[in-house]
Amino acid sequence: MNQAANIMQSLRDLTRLGDDLRKLAKGTPEYEEQEKKMARVREPLPTSILVHYDRRLAQGKLGVAPVHGGVCGACYLTLPSGRLADLRREPRDLNVCDHCGVFIYLPGSEREVAGSSGKLSARPAKTGSKPRGARAKRS
Predict the structure, then answer these.
(1) What span, in angstroms and rounded, lies between the C-alpha atoms of 128 and 130?
(2) pLDDT tens readout for residues 37-76
(3) Domain boundaries, the chain
(4) d(Cα 13, Cα 43) in Å, to the nearest integer?
(5) Which fold has domain 3-117?
């Protein structure tokens, strides 16, 4: 895996561990062990990435979100086609939502769909229609 893919996987792991930590009571051995796991995951991450991630969490926002059907899982806005193309072309690169700034990724199922058809489309293809720009003949 490349460095960006490792960073994204670590951020996803950190999010999962944080969710699990919130379910535990403070001061318990399980809570302490979970904090240690989080510290180990955070250790190799670049400071700039952690600052961005932590700032979002401090604001009560998600730090990492999946993209489903071209829509950000954090702000629910449609991503620009260029950003979607980047995600499909290089799914292991580190990307952020153009609208809300959350780190975004394509889940495995979305990558498979994008890879098999070449694109994700929310609307069905038209059938039986005239070619674009064609005009009807007048009698």
Answers:
(1) 7
(2) 999 999 999 999 999 999 999 999 999 999 999 999 999 9
(3) 3-117
(4) 13
(5) Helix Hairpins (1.10.287)
